[in-house]
Amino acid sequence: MSSSLSSSSTKGLLERLADGPVVGDGSMLITLEKRGYVMAGSWTPEATLQYPDAVKQLHREFLRAGADVIQTFTYCATEDNLKMKNEHEKNSNDMKSVSEINHRACDLAREVANEGGALVAGSVSNVNAYRKDGACHGAGKEFVQNEFKKQCDIFVKKGVDFLLGEFFAFVEEAEWAVEVMAETGLPVACTMRISVIGDQVGVAPGDVAVRMAKAGADVIGVNCCYDPDTALKTLAMMKEGLEKAGLQRYLMAQPLGYHAQEITDDPRGYSVLPEFPFAMESRALTRTDVREFARRAYDEVGVRYIGGCCGFEPYHIRAIAEELTEERGRSFPGRDKSDGYSSLKRAFRVRQHKRANPEYWKNLVPAAGREKVRKLAEIVD
Ligand SMILES: [Zn+2]
């Protein structure tokens, strides 16, 4: 893979964003659950210790697909979160392993990132302590920030390239995380799991973005919970808020890899869909959907950091890299087996020729292949 090293390999996140689009990676927990390395329901990343080869293989597939960033597989790996899950599920995980999970995750991400000149993002999780006893502020600012600091200390020690806070439902919690992340001196990206209705206490997306920027975030956006269409609507509102406040920040989108048009304003996100989690395949984005998302994100909303969250498989990331090849001004490692539609043109059969036309794919309405088709779902509590 050494041929994939590009001239941008020595540049940091902000320099790369200034140059053009940065392609993120995709789903780890959901994809590793499908592959048999994560327990559904727990959604915790012990596989970094138990199955490091499986984690590395998925990192490698994202890298080969064109990801410029490899995120450490550390979502939910905080003492606070794992302790609660272990108590709830009566697991016997050793709390000492939380630190081990994070250290090992950094090593795995770095090893793979270095194979292709990618950056390592230390993935900082929201913490349960913020909602202790069901209230906002929960265990208090000092306690909550200390939980973030414990995560950041390991990432700094392990030399990640930047920090990425993810899956915040409350802007106040995101602000507290951003403040701690910014103290490290590393570039700070932060995404909220919100839709057009704003955070869980109704702070509008525009105001959320401004507050995150003022707290110290360099890159601001949304992840998880909603599909690309809803994510882009939310990001457009964030952008408008930033512009009105006279603030310039890079925007970031890592939405679901699933269609979820029913869920545009339910604060709980896609987990309320009846198909979650074992029948989501029928909702998977096609590569054409992803190319359209990447194009709209970049052209219409001005999003610079484009990746995916749950359901975004390596081939989805490849679709982003293919769509934005010209804007990025360079190829990606897996290009030897990915030349868009041209390989179909080279095929002998006339039927394949029709499919060599991008318009064929753009106009295609995929069938479900089932006799019974439900258009939109009833939400399940
Ligand atoms: Zn997700």
TrEMBL record:
Asked whether the keyword Transferase is assigned, the reply is yes
Q: Does the keyword Secreted apply?
A: no
Which PANTHER family does the entry mention?
BETAINE--HOMOCYSTEINE S-METHYLTRANSFERASE 1 (PTHR46120), HCY-BINDING DOMAIN-CONTAINING PROTEIN (PTHR46120:SF4)
- Record keywords, A-Z: Metal-binding, Methyltransferase, Transferase, Zinc
The organism sits in which domain of life? Eukaryota
Where do the Hcy-binding domain residues begin and end?
10-324
Q: Which GO terms describe its biological process?
A: methionine biosynthetic process; methylation
Binding of Zn(2+) occurs at: C224, C309, C310
Could you tell me what the cofactor note in this record states? Binds 1 zinc ion per subunit.
What is a single molecular function from GO for this protein? betaine-homocysteine S-methyltransferase activity
Secretion signal: which residues?
A: none
Q: Which pathway is recorded for this entry? A: Amino-acid biosynthesis; L-methionine biosynthesis via de novo pathway; L-methionine from L-homocysteine (BhmT route): step 1/1
Its required cofactor(s), as named, are: Zn(2+)
Xref: InterPro entries: BHMT, BHMT-like, HCY_dom, HCY_dom_sf
Q: What is the lineage of its organism?
A: Eukaryota, Metazoa, Echinodermata, Eleutherozoa, Echinozoa
This chain belongs to which protein, by name? Answer: Hcy-binding domain-containing protein
Which Pfam families did the record assign? S-methyl_trans
Q: Which organism is it from?
A: Strongylocentrotus purpuratus
